[in-house]
Amino acid sequence: MKQYVVAVVAAAVMLSSLEAMAAGTVRIGALFSVTGPASFLGEPEKKTLEMLVKEVNAKGGIKGNKIELFIEDTQGDVTKAKQLVSKLIKNDKVVAIIGPSTTGDTMAIIDDVEKAGIPMVSCAAGVKITDPVKKWVFKTPANDHVAGEKLLDYLAAKKQKSLALLTVSDAYGQSGREQLKALAAKKGFSVVADELYSPKDTDMTSQLTKIKGSKADAIICWGTNPGPAVVTRNVKQLGIKIPLYQSHGVASKKYIELAGAEAAEGVVLPAGKLTIYDKMKKSDPQFKVLSDYNLAYKKSYGVEASTFGGYAYDAFELISEAIRKSGTTPEQIRNGIEQVKKLVGVSGLFTMSPTDHNGLDQSAFEMVKVVKGDWDLAK
Predict the structure, then answer these.
(1) What does DSSP say about strands 190-197 and 343-344: parallel, antiparallel, or unpaired?
(2) Which pTM value belongs to this model?
(3) In this structure, is residue 283 part of a structural domain?
(4) Which 3 state secondary structure label does DSSP give 323?
(5) Does residue 211 form part of some domain?
(6) Peptide bond preceding 243: is omega within 30 degrees of 0, i.e. cis?
(7) What distance in Å separates the CA atoms of residue 274 and residue 346, rounded to the nearest whole number?
(8) Dihedral pair phi/psi, residue 134, rounded to 5°
(9) Residues 125-141: pLDDT tens digits?
(10) d(CA 278, CA 276)
(11) Rounded-to-5 percentages of helix, strand, coil across the chain
């Protein structure tokens, strides 16, 4: 009997040891624009990811696997992004990468992750990131053509058919401009002004003066801060009465803060539901995720969560789901992400496939409006 008990205990110890060995650690890398011009994107992404990893590890990890995180700051510089992705892959031996924050940084490193066979879930919106589909590349913000279509459908309902475009001359702006012009032609809009500005420009009165003289029914500014905030202030300063619309690239309180509540009053844009989740029906499938995320972020950092941090939230959830369902190798994670169906995230309900590595449609957006320094649903 004694020998039997000893044998049982030994077997239990061995089984426990095997389970511990099987669990191990999953090394995940992240590339965010934590500092620099795009820090309004990268900082909440970094904080969100750190918060989630801390929560997951405190609960024992993912299927017993603790997450080891390696976060690097690209500063929104494509050269740094190239250097840092190499470090994550070759030195840190990560099995998946979250980010980068910007379309430019993402496009610069696609060849690196494709060659290395490491799944990357970008937090940038440019449609060219996943169209055409690349084997190892996914992204969490809805494609800019989806946002553009949501916006133009809203304008059509308002009978605003003559458009003035003012887009930033970076990868995000170029992609948005292409999509807007193509959609405008398809949907019967006319583009009566087509102006550009540089990411470093601090005044857009020249472009807006030309637009003021056009017969536009609406101005669409497509860019990420600080440019759109400058445009918003300039529109107010010039006394332009043409309605101003922005892209989903400014869907956070930071835009209102930079532009000033008075200047931003009445500005409309397509945005993820996080901006107005407290005005949603509690039966909405996203309500609990959005509410819990905002509460946890506010508890951790003392401020409300942003849509941009939500992109990192969704990237981590996609990778976590893949690990739970498929395994921890890069190939298993890639395959697992591609098989995700109706995963409820901050940005929407994700359904991936071999032909769709974004997985979102127009339902990811609501049309929102700045009212008294806050977001409200646009009517």
Answers:
(1) unpaired
(2) 0.85
(3) no
(4) helix
(5) yes
(6) no
(7) 7
(8) -110, 145
(9) 888 999 999 999 999 99
(10) 5
(11) 50, 20, 30
